[in-house]
């Protein structure tokens, strides 16, 4: 913003555009301590593999719950 101001290009539009952008510190995150996950994850996985494993497990559980709801109807 300072650079745009110094260049004379700072406008209401530019300010609005900057303020409407999502900032990294404004994203929702979920943190789970590793000691809670360690016994539930396969050993020797990289951090990326652990993340992939958790996301696949959540997807699988979501599908499982949906099947349970469909059977109850």
Task: Give structural notes.
With 73 residues, this protein is mainly α. The protein has one domain (2-72). The chain has helices spanning 2-7, 12-20, 34-37, 47-72. The mean pLDDT is 91.
Spell out the helices and strands N to C.
Answer: HHHH
Strand content: under 5%
Q: Span between N and C termini?
A: 56 Å
Percent range for helical residues? 55-70%
How would you sum up the major sheet?
none
Which helices and strands, and how do they pair?
Blueprint: H1 2-7, H2 12-20, H3 34-37, H4 47-72
List its traits:
single chain, 73 residues, mainly alpha, 4 helices, 62% helix
Task: Produce a short descriptive summary.
This protein has 73 residues and is mainly α. The chain has helices spanning 2-7, 12-20, 34-37, 47-72.
């Amino acid at each position: 913003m300072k650079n745009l101001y110094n260049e004379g290009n700072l406008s209401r539009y530019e300010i609005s555009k900057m303020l409407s952008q999502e900032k990294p510190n404004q994203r929702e995150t979920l943190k789970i301590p590793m000691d809670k996950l360690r016994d539930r994850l396969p050993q020797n996985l990289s951090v990326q593999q652990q993340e992939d494993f958790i996301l696949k497990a959540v997807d699988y559980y979501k599908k499982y719950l949906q099947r349970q709801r469909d059977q109850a109807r």
